[in-house]
Amino acid sequence: MSRPAPPPTDDELHAWVDGQLAAERHGAVEEAIASDPAVAAKVAAWHTQRDALRRLHGELLDEPVPTALMGALDRHLPRTARHVSWLRWGGMAAGLLIAFAAGWLGNAQWSAPRGGTQLAKVPAVREFVHDASVAHAVYAPEKRHPVEVAASEQQHLVQWLSRRLDRPLKVPDLSTQGYTLVGGRLLPGETGARAQFMFEDAAGERVTLYIGTLDANAAGATAARETAFRFASEGPVPSFYWVDQGFGYALAGKLPREVLLKLATLAYRDLS
Amino acid sequence: MDARLLVEHIPSLRRYARALTGNAWAADDLVQDTLERACSKWRLWVVGSDLRAWLFTVMHNIFASQVRRTPPPHAVVSLDDLPHELQGGVDPGRDQGTSLDLQRCLMQLPDEQRAVLLLVTLEDLSYAEVAKVLGIPAGTVMSRLSRARVRLQELMDGASAPIRPGLRRLK
Question: What is the DSSP string of B33-44?
Answer without folding.
Answer: HHHHHHHHTGGG
